[in-house]
Design a protein that fits this description.
The chain is of the alpha+beta class. About 55% of the residues lie in helices and about 15% in strands. The chain has helices at about 1-25, 25-65, 85-95, 105-110, 145-150, 165, 175-185, 215-220, 235-240, 245-255, 295-310, 320-365, 365-375, 380-415, 425-450, 455-460, and strands at about 70-75, 115-130, 135-145, 155-160, 170-175, 195, 200-205, 230, 260, 270-275, 285-290, 315-320. Helix 12 (about 320-365) runs antiparallel to helix 14 (about 380-415) and helix 14 (about 380-415) runs antiparallel to helix 15 (about 425-450).
Length: about 450
């Protein structure tokens, strides 16, 4: 017990003396601690960015679904830089006809690919909803009940479409939470009627609000589900629009092909008029049973659709989870680079502490000789100089923590990258600062302790 008290008194005395020495050399101490400050700040910022990236990846996975494959149609649009020369006209004439992406494709995928668990076709139309005599823009989506599962969404109230409602094209809808707030401020929309374009729809369900960032919408090509109105597929096709019927009529006028060909006279130049969006559905989400089967299923899916579309590649297949994995890999590389920078900063900080402590040993050689002559042991000298190096690194660590916290918030505000601070990252950073002080302070401390008292007293 007595030994512990003596050790505590020694530590207290050494740290007090170290504090006063640092206080009398403020500028030199601050410059010495800069490496530690930036190193600790880098570690905190790096971990905050990493935590934010991990949260973003997990939330995006929840939005797109782990086992989903997305098929989107490619409309037959005329490019701005297209040249109407004779050679291109000849190529256009030989272009094959495709019926486009339709509900029959969705049924075939579900029936003939064993690894497919469910399919969710969607038809999308930008339209308006009439509220209090005013038109508000809204996106109308025709869906099947599988959409609720493939999109990982929940209903806050109400229920999904019944088989009877879906089959008989009844005028019912499910709306997003933002739509409810906009149209029915302060009250529930459940059971009420809304007029979308020219059709009155009864609200049978309300989607639970889910935050979807603009970045996620852009990177993953997904919509803000809270702002849409959903109706059964058959309701959309019967009461609004069926592009398949229209496109079939257009193609018959043009004599086949993915376009219409018109000419001024029999021998005149032929001009290609694109069909536009001739696809019946705008998106097809396919959920597979096992994530290991995603790539193989996508390959089979591509071959099947290409065959059904008469070898016309008028669709695009994406696997969202692969895009997310690529993003995750990029962010991991970024974190590794940040880690290396932080490590270099800490190393430089440690070398700086060692250099300044060696210089301090040379400056205080006579002082070392005096305290050794009056009875101080080598251990006392080691503790004295080690206390100074640890105090410098701890002070630098505390400042570095403040800089790191401020830096994380600044990065989030300026760049929009989400950062998440944690107690673990701050604790790790502080411990690293203390360890650096100990490791790089040992050599100067031992160098001071090994000086012989007589030779130290003779030095000027």
């Amino acid at each position: 017990m007595m030994v512990d008290k003596i050790l505590l008194e020694k530590l207290k005395s050494n740290f007090t003396e170290a504090f006063w020495f640092i206080k009398t050399n403020k500028v030199r101490t601050f410059l010495t601690a800069l490496g530690i400050i930036f190193g600790v700040a880098s570690v905190i910022t790096m971990l905050a960015i990493g935590n934010g990236a991990e949260k973003e990846i997990l939330s995006q996975l929840e939005l797109v679904g782990v086992n989903n494959i997305v098929v989107t149609p490619i409309p037959d649009e005329k490019k701005d830089n297209e040249n109407d020369n004779e050679e291109e006209s000849e190529k256009s004439e030989t272009k094959r006809f495709s019926k486009g992406l339709d509900i029959l494709d969705a049924e075939s995928v579900k029936n003939y690919i064993p690894s497919v668990k469910m399919v969710s076709p969607e038809i999308i139309m930008d339209t308006y909803v009439i509220n209090n005599g005013k038109q508000n823009p809204v996106r109308l989506i025709g869906i099947s009940n599988a959409f609720i599962q493939t999109s990982n969404i929940n209903l806050e109230s109400g229920k999904s479409f019944s088989d009877y409602q879906a089959k008989n094209a009844l005028p019912v809808c499910i709306i997003g939470k933002k739509v409810e707030k906009k149209l029915f401020t302060g009250e529930s929309a459940l059971g009420k009627q809304i007029k979308v374009k020219d059709v009155w729809l009864q609200v049978v369900g309300i989607i639970e609000e889910k935050f979807i960032s603009e970045k996620a919408q852009e990177n993953l090509c997904i919509r803000d589900l809270n702002e849409d109105v959903y109706i059964p597929l058959n309701t959309f096709l019967v009461r609004y629009k069926d592009r398949k019927i229209i496109s079939n009529k257009v193609s018959s006028v043009g004599g086949g092909g993915n376009f219409i060909v018109v000419s001024g006279n029999q021998n005149g130049p032929k001009k290609r008029i694109p069909r536009g969006n001739y696809h019946q559905i705008d998106k097809l989400t396919i959920q597979v049973s096992n994530s290991n089967e995603l790539k193989a299923t996508a390959e089979v899916l591509s071959k099947m659709l290409k065959r059904r579309h008469n070898d016309v590649l008028d669709f695009e297949i994406t696997i969202p989870i692969q895009l997310l994995k690529q993003q995750q890999k990029t962010k991991q590389i970024f974190n590794i680079v940040l880690s290396i920078i932080a490590g270099i900063s800490l190393l430089i900080g440690g070398i700086g502490i060692m250099n300044i402590m060696l210089a301090s040993v040379l400056e205080r050689t006579r002082e070392i000789g005096i305290i050794r002559a009056i009875g101080a042991t080598e251990e006392d000298v080691v503790l004295q100089f080690l206390s100074e190096s640890v105090l410098i690194s701890v002070g630098g660590g505390v400042i570095g923590i403040l800089v790191g916290i401020i830096g994380a918030y600044v990065i989030e505000i300026v760049s929009g990258i989400e950062t998440i601070l944690s107690i673990n990252s701050i604790t790790i950073s502080f411990l690293i600062a203390v360890i650096v002080g100990l490791v790089f302070g040992i050599f100067p401390a031992k160098a001071a302790a090994k000086k012989k008292p007589i030779e130290a007293l003779r030095s000027e």
